[in-house]
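Changelog-linked ticket: zinc ion example.
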Amino acid sequence: MTMRIAPSILNADLADIAAEVARVPSSDMIHFDVMDNHFVPNLTLGLPVVESLLRHTTTPIDAHLMIEDADTWAPQYADLGCESVTFHAEATKAPIRLAREIRKLGSRASLALKPTTSIEPYAEVIGEFDMILLMTVEPGFGGQSFLDSVLPKIRRTRGLIQDTGKQIWIQVDGGVSVDTIGRAAEAGADVFVAGTAVYRSDDPDAMVTKLRDLAVSACGH
Ligand code: DX5
Ligand code: ZN
């Protein structure tokens, strides 16, 4: 299984985002956290910043929308050219319609679940998505501790995906570090967001490689 690392720029120097992205050339994607101070109690960046950033990097952008009214906003991130657009199950009125709209615009469509939201209601429709993001912290802030209680949900989601026969990625986001990435990979995750672990490291690009190596050896195939 291919393991992908997506550094979260939430934890980088937000006054110099293009340079911060350039510091991690080994990344598979750059994770871009959009927060609106309604869905989560924090406010970050939005469409105009993604638009600018896309002019400064060729690394694919993985937009994680922690916003209300994702139905309205998510297609605009796809339209800009984000490789992947993630919206929250808890903030979407019509997730299947939205996923289809995002795919039609040429991006990967991804469904995010907070730690207390179950995957089971989505079991029959999981094939509508290119990726499932299982939050391993309550969304809103970087630097929180990884929730081991989400590991069984990662395993169940991997099982549901195997039943579809499709190549659907499982992303984990929150508290991913050298200490926790192995457990998430062993449970079935294959895309890892890491904010603090990468950007608070002395050598962020070496950390990206190290995290990927740990995930590969933990998954065992
Ligand atoms: C949290 C964000 C995460 C965050 C991860 O709500 O969605 O992407 O930046 O940061 P760390 O890796 O520090 O937990
Ligand atoms: Zn995120």
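Closing comment: Example verified and attached. DSSP finds eight helices and eight strands in the chain. Residues 204-219 form the longest helix (16 residues).
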